[in-house]
Amino acid sequence: RFTNEFIKNPTIDEQFIFCTCGSRVNVLEISTGKIVHSVEHDDQEDITSFVLSPDDELLVTASRALLLKQWDWKRATCTRSWRAIHTVPVASMTFDPTSTLLATGGCDGTIKLWDVVKQYCTHNLKGSSGVVHLVQFHPDISRLQLFSSSLDCNVRVWDLQTSKCVHVLQNHYSAVTSLSFSQNGDTMVSSGRDKICTVWDVHSFKATRTVPVYEVNVQNKYFDLLECVLRVWEASSARCVHTRTLSSTLTPASVTAEHNIVFYQLPSLSTLQQFSGYSDEVLDVKFLGKSDSHLVVATNSCQLKVFELLTNSCQILYGHTDTVLTLDVFRNASMFASCAKDRSVRVWHMDSDSGHVTCVAHGSSHTNAVGSICCSRLKASFIVTGSQDCTVKVWDLPAELPVEGEEVHQLTARITEKAHDKDVNSVAVSPNDKLLASGSQDRTAKLWSLRPEGPLELLGVFRGHRRGIWMVCFSPVDQVLASSSADGTAKLWGLQDFSCLKTFEGHDASVLKVIFVSRGTQLLTSGSDGLVKLWTIKTNECVKTLDAHQDKVWGLHASRKDDLMVTGSADSKITVWKDVTEVELAEEQAKQEDQILKQQELSNLLHEKKYLKALGLAIALDQPQTVLTVIKAIRQGENTCELLEKTVLKLRTDQKESLLRYCAMWNTNARNCLDAQGVLQVLLKHLPPEELLQFQGARTHLEGLIPYTERHMQRIGNLLQCLLPAVVAAGRSRGGGWHCPVACAVRWAAGPGPLSLRRLGLCGPA
C-alpha cells in the first residue's frame, strides 16, 4: 500500500517511479505499469522511509530494524548497510543536490547527516520536538542549510557549519506536510494540514503571504485536493488560477489515502496514466471486454476499479456511496452491473474503442445491503438482485441506454419477491433467461420461473446443505444447478426432481464460489481456506488444487474462451490463471513420440552392436532398466570384461555418475548383481577414490552398495562351501586352472568389489 510519504518523484528520464510495499521498494515502469525491479530487506521488516538521490544513482532505505541500506536499484543489489544510530525508526530522509549528503529524521526527535561517499556520520542535530517527519536541503548547497519539521508544527532552519538551529518559522497550526523552493532559492512555500500554504522569504525568514486553500489535507505546495477538485494557486497574489474537477481522487505524481497513483499532463492537467497501488480486501472480480482485455474489481471500497491487463492502467469508477459487494457481466462483455451496501444497483458501459467506462443506469429500492446480482444471459434486457432484506428484485433495462454525457437512466424494479427467510447471498439466471435460482443464508436454494410478464413462480426448493449457501450457478449445457455452502461442500442438483446428484468435499472451510468450466464438464470452487479446486464432475475427483492466496477467495471468474481464470482474495491479491492443459498434453505427446523414436534408435544400435552409443542414449533417457539391458547385451558377447571396460571408460563424467547410481539400484536384486558388480569393478579399478567421491551422491550410493554386496558374497561363500570339493576336482581334472564356470563367476563377482570398496574406507573386514 502507498501513502504520500512512501512515493518518490519519477527518475530524471520520467520512466520509473518508486514506491514501498511492506518490506520492499518496487520500481514501477510508468509506461507499462509493471514492476521492473524490487529491493527488499532481508529481515522482512517494514520500510519506514526511503529516498532516491537527485542523480538517480543511489537508493537508500530505512526499516523498523533501524538499518539503513544503500542500493544499486538498477541491479536490485544492496551495496552497503549500516546502523542508523537513531534509537527509534527513521521517519524521513532526503539527499542534498550533490547526492553526497544524506539527512535522516528520526522518531526520536534527532536529525543525522551522513556522508555517503566517505561513509560516516557528519552531524547530529538535536532540538526538534517529537517525530521529525520532514527534512529538506536548501537547493543552493553553498548555503549549507537544512530545513525540518516535527510535531510542533514549526519549520526549523539548521546551519550545517555550526550544527545549530538558527531560525524557527512559525505560522502553521497543524503538521507541516511539504516544502518547496523557487528556482533561485529565495522563496520557500510550506503547506500543512491546517489548510493553508505559507510563502516565506528565505533571506529574512519571514512569512510574506499566507494562502488559505481551505482543503481538508494539503499535501503539495502548488496543487491541493478536495473531493476530486484540483486547484493551481499563484503564490504572489494568493489567487486560484486553475480549477479542474477530476475523475478520481488523484493528484499529479502523488498518492492519496485511497492508495491510487496518477500522472497528469501539464499545463492541461489531462490524465496520462493512473495505477491502483492497494486493493484492500478483494470482494469480487470479473473479466471485461470482448477479448477479456480488462478486469473489473470490487474491493472493500465504494469505488470500482477497471484494470487493463496489458498495461496495468486503472480507471477508478465513482457512483456507489458504500462498499461494493459483487459484480456481474453481460454476455456482450462491454456492460456490467454492480451492487453495494448503499442498497443500490448500477449498470456500467465500457466503450470498445477507448476503454472508458461510464455509469448508464442506476436503481435503488432495496431496504438493506444488496449482496448479489446477476445479468440476463441472452441479451442486456434485465438484471436480478438479491438483498439482505430477504427479497429478490428483477430490474428491466431500456432498449436504448444513455451515452456518455447524458443523464443516467433511473431503474425501477418490475418484480419484488420475498424469496427467503434470511439473507439472499446469490442469484443466478439460466442460459435461456427462463429460470432464476437463489441461494440463501437459510441453507436452501430455490428455483423460480422467470417470465417476461408477471411475478416469479416458485418451482422447487433444494435442501441438503447444513449451513448457509454462498453461491448458485446454472450449468451451461445440462439441466443441473451447482451450489456452494459454508458447510465446506459444493453440490450438484437436478432441475427436474430437485434432488442432490453429487457432493464435492475437499475444502476445509466455507466454499464461497462455484462456477462451471470446460464446457460444463468441470467445476471450479474457491473457499475461505484460500484454495481454488478443480473438480471433474463425472468422477467427483479433485484433479487440481491451486494455492496462491492467504485468505478468503471471494472472487472467481472464467474468461469466455475458458482459457483464463481470475481469482480475488481478502489478502488483496488478484491472480490471473492460464489453462495449460492442452500445452501439457502436447508436451506429453511430444515426449512420448521422442521416447518411441529413441527406443527404436536404441534397438537399432544394439542390433548393430554399437554399444557405446547405445549406452549413452539409454543413460540420456534416464531409464535404469534400459541401461541394464544394454549392459547385459555387452556381457553376452565375447571378451565381455574387456568390451565392458572399454565402453564404460569412454563415457562422460556425468554419464558415469548416472551409471554409479544405477549400479546401487541393480545391486539390490540378486538377478542383476553380477551386472552391477561388473560395472562397479570398472569404475573402482580405473577411477581414483578422490575422483569417484566427487560424483554427485557418490558416498550415499557406495554406502548403499556395501550391505547388498556383503549379502551377495555371503550367498556365494555358502555356495562355495557346498561346491568346493567338486570345484577342486573339476579344476584338477583340467590341469589345475580356474576353468569351471561356477568358479570363474565366484572369483569375478566376489573378488574386486569389496577389495576396492575397502580401499575407499567404506567396507569392513567382511
Descriptive account of the structure:
Residues 599-721 form the U3 small nucleolar RNA-associated protein 13 C-terminal domain. WD repeats lie at residues 83-116, 125-168, 169-210, 317-358, 363-397, 417-451, 462-503, 504-545, 546-578. Its main location: nucleus. With 766 residues, this protein is of the alpha+beta class. The protein has a five-stranded mixed β-sheet with strand order 31-32-33-34-38, with no helix packed on it. The protein has a four-stranded antiparallel β-sheet with strand order 1-2-3-4, with no helix packed on it. A four-stranded antiparallel β-sheet has the order 5-6-7-8, with no helix packed on it. A hairpin with a 4-residue loop joins strand 24 (254-255) and strand 25.
For the structure shown, list the relevant keywords.
five-stranded mixed β-sheet, 766 residues, alpha+beta, 54 strands, disordered N terminus, 41% strand, single chain, flat
Quick description:
This protein is α+β, with helices and mostly antiparallel strands and 766 residues long. Strands 31-32-33-34-38 form a 5-stranded mixed β-sheet, with no helix packed on it. α1 runs antiparallel to α2 and α2 runs antiparallel to α3.
